[in-house]
Amino acid sequence: MPRASSFNPTAPALTLDMPNRLFFPGDAVFGTVALDLSVAQREHIDEVSVVLIGTLRIQLDQRPGTLRGVADKQTLVLCHESTVLWRAGEAYPPPGMHTLRLPFALVLPASPMLLPSFEGGGAAHGAGCSVKYQLAVLGQRTSPTRDIDAGRPHMTTAREIVRVLNVLRRDPEGAVVKARLEAQDGQWDGDWGMRKECKKIRRGLVGGHGIVHAELHIPYINNFPLGTAVPYALHIRTQSKRLPSPTHTPPLKVFPCPPTSGFGLSMHLTQHLDLRAHGMWQAVNEQLGSLGGLGVRAKDTKRGRQGEAANVKIGEWKWVEEEEEEDEGERKRWKRLRRKRTGMGRWTREVTFKGHITLNCAPSFAHVNMEVQHFLDVRVPFKGIGNSLDLRVPIRISSGLVANPGPPSPPPTAYHTAPSTASGGHDYADHDRYKDALPRYSEPLPPGQTQVNPEEEWE
Hints:
Elements: E1 14-17, E2 28-36, H1 37-42, E3 47-61, E4 71-87, E5 99-107, E6 118-122, E7 127-147, E8 152-165, H2 172-183, E9 192-201, E10 210-219, E11 224-225, E12 229-239, E13 243-244, E14 266-277, E15 280-290, H3 298-302, E16 311-314, E17 318-322, E18 326-327, E19 338-339, E20 344-358, E21 365-366, E22 370-380, E23 389-395, E24 397-398, E25 414-417, H4 431-436
Parallel strand pairs: 11-24
Antiparallel strand pairs: 1-2, 2-5, 3-4, 3-7, 6-7, 7-8, 8-25, 9-10, 10-12, 12-20, 13-20, 14-15, 14-22, 16-20, 17-20, 18-19, 21-22, 22-23
């Protein structure tokens, strides 16, 4: 006869064992729940069930002059699946054992337009939204009261285990780009896209204008895959104000002078959210972090304090002659006097920064109630007020995956809650009531199409 296992009064009644991985539309969320019957009897657990639920939550600030209360909130259910694993008296562990193992498998919706996991905005930004997928294992006890709507005894949650799932969309096009970049060790042999800006600046309120140019070159691709080093090149060229022909080397103080170190420059990834809830609309912008090794000191890189700094190539000062007709001056522009000035020119210099961009954030996507867009924002500072040169490049971020990668993802959040019958929040125990309390999820429309609910008043 097998030896009976010792009883541990501090052991949890429920234990969840499931693989740690990413999930895609149509994947099965599977695992095993270990039920300790001795603890379950002590806590009066009569039923064990598992629930897979995905929700989209949007919260907006109150608009001035409205009577809507503190905020506008809207919640949509993206998916909802549940199954009962065990009821009291239906199954028992082998003789001499206290633990009963209950396997389960729930399937995510197979729609390729299923929203990925996401969380953005918040109280600091005035609005926020989240797309969250959770797997909940519930140990429920029978309440003395009776559920009139369901026609059965009311169930309350005695024990609960919740795992947050990381869900991404499959991205065949981005997977090809990701494999191509990894095969070339972060280099790119295809077409390049360019965004350039030009601006006239001067040191003070009066004087001639210098000219600054900035060009950002990035691979010409539709999707930027996550976790992949994407090369870039930033070319900066400056031209001084028109000066007489020099007879010696350039002066010590030439304005404008291009930056020779990437520490003063900045490249940020900006996330733009367009949120809609109950006919209200609000936009949120937040910076997700620095990219490309710009804004990093070389000495900090050597000491391991920050990431890799961008490579810098500094050109020499060159004199470029100009013999074009030009206005005699800003003060005499009203006279419309023009004269040809020979022997005039500008000092010019070019600096190039090269590095890699690695994106680690939620991908870009669109839905009827929200849209997530991403931009690369580059700022090149120059001396003087309002002389900074800004570039903004819209990019589309995708997962770059069609299947789970080799190394496991970080473990999702797991927590146990104490027995509670509080009515605040949603109770997973009553599946039907929870499912009907929220509006169902509708398939997102293709790009370029919009949908308006006739029951809502859109402003």
